[in-house]
Write a structure and sequence with these properties.
With 396 residues, this protein is of the alpha/beta class. The chain has two domains: 258 residues, TIM Barrel (Alpha-Beta Barrel), CATH 3.20.20; 75 residues, Arc Repressor Mutant, subunit A, CATH 1.10.10.
Length: 396
């Protein structure tokens, strides 16, 4: 097999072994009011049995699809940092045993403020973690309580200080906007406090009211006082302007970074590249198939005892893969390149497949064509950036 250069896969993409690994730890200290992720309050959960099952899935996964060098690891949840230091060491040791993680690979772990004491940070560093993404969400304590977070703003600051003392330099925080009763002034204040931390990366997400959450039940009853649409638009515009002025490049619709600190693992998804996905409810994509694992903790443990813990697997058609390529790729502000489309799809041209859609989006001023020859491609316009969901959905 021809070896890929950098993170670029060879053609055909379906024959490429993943270079990225996602692992799901589904435990949390509590369930936030907006959260529909596959997560469970950790108290009373069989955490050690889950780690046993996770290692069994690792063993079966590498037997079925032997890994080459892993360049990007992301441990998400849930809150992976609810593991004790001993559990953290055990878990990270199992990753190292089964997957050849390259020196210099990006190894990210999600964390909630207040769950990363020095002993845990030491275990994370020793196990190869070199990037932490903290779920700060807001620096307004009233808003934090209103969305079900149990940390306060000071916990974010202390957690960042602890991480830096432990030797972590690649740090990110998530902020949310469009929260119930949130004002533009409150958002501006949170952004200023976030920028005072001088981090290399910020992720900024608008609230989505998802089914099977407390917020969805309140919304259905008309009891969720969300900001008006024009206020939410103003919030997003302020985020873009303020972070740009502070020297951060917006490289994706919700992500801002200093040069060289863009999330490499998330780039796997945005470029529609394959990845291993392990753990309860995890998704994976490899050899032209997408899978989703069994979600429940005990159900996952039971399934992993007898085989790969799959809930469902389906073959991705070429058309579906093309649609995915355009939808996720256009989230990147650099857009999608024709050369990458041709490489993934055996020489096919995006304009031959999506010519009408591309033309319509250009007419609407939401997309623009850039470059010539191999460097040509499409990207969101300034008008299109805040209307990205309309653009992405047009390719279905």
């Amino acid at each position: 097999m021809v070896q890929p250069q950098g993170d670029a896969p060879p053609a055909p993409l379906h024959g490429w072994t993943p270079r990225a690994l996602y692992i799901h730890i589904p435990f949390c200290t509590n369930k936030c009011f907006y959260c529909d992720f596959n997560s469970y309050v950790v108290e009373g959960q069989p955490v050690d049995a889950y780690l046993d099952a996770l290692e069994r899935e690792m063993e079966r996964t590498v037997a079925a699809l032997p890994p080459e060098t892993i360049r990007k690891v992301f441990v998400g949840g849930g809150t992976p940092t609810v593991l004790t230091p001993a559990q953290m060491t055990r878990f990270l040791d199992s990753v190292a045993r089964h997957f050849p993680v390259a020196p210099g690979a990006e190894f990210t772990m999600e964390a909630n403020p207040g769950t990363t004491d020095p002993a845990k940070l030491e275990a994370m560093r020793a196990g190869g973690v070199n990037r932490i993404s903290f779920g700060a969400q807001s620096f307004d304590n009233g808003l934090l309580a209103a969305i079900g977070r149990i940390h306060e703003a000071d916990d974010v600051v202390r957690s960042i200080e602890n991480a830096r003392r432990a030797g972590f330099t690649n740090l990110s925080i998530d902020l949310m906007f469009g929260l119930p009763r949130q004002t533009l002034e409150q958002l501006k204040d949170s952004v200023e406090k976030a920028l005072e931390l001088d981090l290399p990366h910020y992720s900024l997400y608008s609230l989505k009211v998802e089914e099977n959450t407390l917020f969805h039940r309140l919304y259905e009853r008309g009891e969720l006082p969300l900001p008006e649409e024009d206020v939410e638009v103003a919030m997003y515009e302020h985020l873009r302007e303020r972070l740009g002025r502070a020297g951060y490049k917006q490289y994706e619709v919700s992500n801002f970074a200093k040069p060289g600190f863009e999330s490499r693992h998330n780039g796997t998804y945005w470029r529609n590249e394959p990845y291993y996905g392990l753990g309860a409810g995890a998704h994976g994509y490899a050899r032209g198939e997408r899978h989703m694992n069994v979600k429940g903790v005990q159900a996952y443990i039971d399934a992993a005892a007898i085989g790969l813990p799959r809930k469902e697997t389906h073959t991705v058609t070429v058309r579906e893969a093309m649609e995915d390529f355009m939808m996720v790729g256009l989230r990147l502000l650099d857009g999608v390149r024709e050369a990458d489309f041709r490489r993934q799809f055996g020489g096919a041209a995006s304009e031959d497949v999506f010519g009408e859609v591309l033309a319509k989006l250009r007419e609407q001023g939401l997309l623009e064509r850039f470059g010539e020859g191999e460097a040509a491609g499409y990207r969101l316009t300034e008008k299109g950036i805040p209307l990205g969901n309309e653009v992405f959905g047009a390719f279905l």
